[in-house]
Structure formats: C-alpha cells, structure tokens
Amino acid sequence: MSKFASAGFSFVFVWSVAFVLDTRTAGIFLYSYMLVTVLVQLARAGTENSMLRIIQSTDDRVETISKLVVFLVYVAGMTIIFGGMLFALVGLGIIQIYQDTQASQSLWLLLVLALLFGVSQVFGSYFQIQRNVYSQYWSLAIFVSFAGCLASALVYFGQSEVDVVQYTLTFLLISMLCFGITLLLLWHSLGKKCSKEKRHEELVNAKGIQVIKSTMPFALLTFIHITTQWGGQLLSGGWLKEEELAMLSVATRLAMLTNFVFLALAALLAPSYSKLYEENKINQFEAISLRSVGLSTLFSLTLILIFIVFGKAILAFFGAEYQAAYWALVILSAGWLVCVIVGPTSEILLMTDRTREVRKSLIVSSIITVILSLILIPLFRVEGAAIAGALGLTALSLQNYAKVKKAYGINFLSPKSQAAQLGSIWQMFFVQGWRLNKRNV
User: Fold this and answer.
1) Residue ranges per structural domain of the chain
2) Tens digit of each residue's pLDDT, the chain (441 residues)
3) What's the pTM?
4) DSSP one-letter string for 131-171
C-alpha cells in the first residue's frame, strides 16, 4: 500500500507542478528536481546494504545512533561532492537552461533539499531494517512529493503568478517541515530500542573506512544505471528549451507507470529467488514468476494501449501545450514494456551471484543511451531523447534476457511460458473468483 501511495504522490506532484506553473517555469523546476534526485541516488548508493549488515546486529539505542551518524556524514559528504561537480558543470555553461540567473538560483536552493533528502533516505533505509513500512516510504519518497503538492496548492489558492525561485523556495520550506515529521518518526523508532547503558568507549562503532569500502563500488554501478534510465533526459539539458524539458519530464514520469506493477512484484519475488538459489532449486524460478510476469504484462499492455488511444487527452490534463509530448510518451512506454515482457531477468541475475553480468549489460546500455542521445536529441529534440532512452532500456532488457536464458534456460517469451502466464491469470481472476462467488452463495 505504501508503494502505491509513493507512486501516487509522485504522479500528483508532477501534475501539480505542470498545472500551476507556466511551461517554461515548470521545465526549469522539473529538470532541476530530476538532477537533484539523481544526485541523491548517487550519494546514498550502496548504503542500504551496508546499513543492513552494520546496524541490524544491535538493539542498543546509543550504538545505533552512533552508527547512523557515520552513514549520515558519509551521505552528506557525497552529496556535497556531487553537488560541487554539478556546480562545475553549470559554471562551464554545459547545461543551457542555467545560463538564466533564476534557473541557477532555483538549482542552488534544490541542492539544499538534496542534503535533507539524502539524510531522509538514510533514515528510510533504517526504517526498512526495522520493517516499519509506512515510515520507510515516507522518508524515501512521499515526504518530498507531499511537500511539492502542498507548495503547488499554496501557489494555486494564492492566485498569484510565481517565478521558479519563489516556487522552489516555497517547496524547500515545506519540505523542511515535512522532514521534521521524519525526525519524529526516527525518534519514536529509536525509543523502542533497549539501552544497555554501555559506556561510549565500549560501543562497537561503524568505522568510516568500512562504510566507504562497502558503499563506494555501488556508486559507479548506480551512475551507470542512472545513465541508462535517465541518460536521455539528463543530456537533453544541453539542447532542449525549458518548455521542451517540461514536456519530456511529464512524458517520462507517465511512461514509468508502465513499469510500476512489474517493479513492485519483482521486489517481492527477489527474496524467493535468493532462497531457491541457496537450495539449488533454480528450475523453480520460472514457475514462481509466471503469475507476476503475466499480471505485469497485462497491466503494461493495457496502459500503453490507453496511452496510444487517449495519450493526448491525458497529456492535456497537464496543460494543452503538453499534448506535443504524445510521441515521446508512446516511445518511452514501449521501452518500459520491453522491460516487463522479458521478465525479472535482472533480479534473477542479481539474486544468483551474477552481478558482474548485470554490470556488463548496464555499461553497454549506458553507452548506447549516451551515443544515441548525442546524435538524436539535436536532430529530433524531445522525441530524440525518448528514442535514446527507450532503446537504452531495450538493450539492457534484451541483454539480461539472453544471459538468463543461456545460464538457466528460463525464457518468459517462449510460447509455453506465455500460455502458462495466461493460464495463471485466468485462474486467478476467473476460476478462483468463480469459486469464491459460489462459496458465498
């Protein structure tokens, strides 16, 4: 439920920005916000796994706090480093829109948010360890999206036009208030831990070097993954105008809904893959995945058909000018559809100690995305960025699909697997539903 709430708030946030701001202002803000979210993902890359190993072993409140502080310092430091790199790129004039003073001021305000968001992400990982799902998703995503919705509501009911700096400042101030709720949730969670009254010098503190060694390798992997998924939109800042960036951002967010159910179900299956792999029951991977792959494919196909038929009407909901992003929406949705129909191949590789294979696929896909972006964006503008992104995703999916098929003989595209997927969906929706109705009668 929390994952659906997170996705729902994220969608409403993007819609509210497009609705209350003119296209140019929305383009500046959404592109800057995308840069900041990428920066936060890079800063916290790998900390989830490290925290799971380092913090999970203790029930002592003071010891937990001391270890959390180490991760907070690490993420804050990495955020500052990546923020400095972004500052250098803007100073060199590589990103076209930041030649405008207000656009650059908006970005610097959002970099303050990056620090808050990065810290909140650490707390979210802690809540995940404690299996506090609602606090986890509030910290990881919902609080920022919720703050954005409130900022848009204030602008709308204030009935006054605002520039991008004023909107960003409003968003930042509300985000600070929402971050306060995260701190209260953390305080409440830590209060449940028993304190063994250990002296400070006896605490087994997490060493900074240990944290760096265990997290830094993931930063590179995360960067490569981001390049594949967001490369087209990231590089578009070098050529596209503010209005075009707004259209691309809306199309990208809408298209990602095509992959939403697949991601949620794949995350649920990941622990099962790991367990079956340890028990040497790899032959059962496909069997336990059929229903989730079938459901994901059905959802994605339905959504992309809706986009094809009603795409312009849906985009008009954001504003009449956003209808120009119709083809970008369809193209990006098609790219995500390929990710769905080949099945959870990436998760299978990761859960069976084939991380190196996934890394190779990501490197190839990111190179494809970058090269195509450099060629297609200047030629075809928004559609060029969409094509580059979709083909990068397709390349990643097909590589992992081929590797899983070769290593384990699992093929979610085979006629046999397709028939089994349809059968599992039929049984779930019709046979089980019929039995339930009969029982109620």
Assistant:
1) 1-206, 217-441
2) 556 677 778 889 999 999 999 999 999 999 999 999 999 988 888 777 677 666 665 666 667 777 788 888 889 999 999 999 998 989 888 888 999 999 999 999 999 999 999 999 888 888 877 777 778 778 878 889 999 999 999 999 987 789 999 999 999 999 999 999 999 988 888 776 544 444 444 334 445 666 666 676 666 777 788 888 888 999 999 999 999 999 999 999 999 999 988 887 877 777 777 778 778 887 788 888 888 889 999 999 999 999 999 999 999 999 999 999 999 999 999 999 999 999 999 888 887 888 889 989 999 999 999 999 999 999 999 999 999 999 999 999 999 999 999 998 999 999 988 888 888 877 777 655 444 344 443
3) 0.86
4) T-HHHHHIIIIIHHHHHHHHHHHHHHHHT----HHHHHHHH
Query: 49: which 2 tokens?
Result: 């796994």
Q: For residue 234, what are its two tokens?
A: 């990231």
Q: Which residues contact 414 (CB under 8 A, 6 or more apart)?
A: none
Whole-angstrom distance, CA of residue 261 vs CA of residue 101: 40
- Rounded to 5°, the CA angle 171-172-176 comes to 115
| CB atoms inside a 10 Å sphere around CB 24 | 18
Residue partners of 330: CB distance under 8 A and separation at least 6: 304, 307, 308, 311
Residue 428: CB partners within 8 Å, gap ≥ 6?
Answer: 291, 295
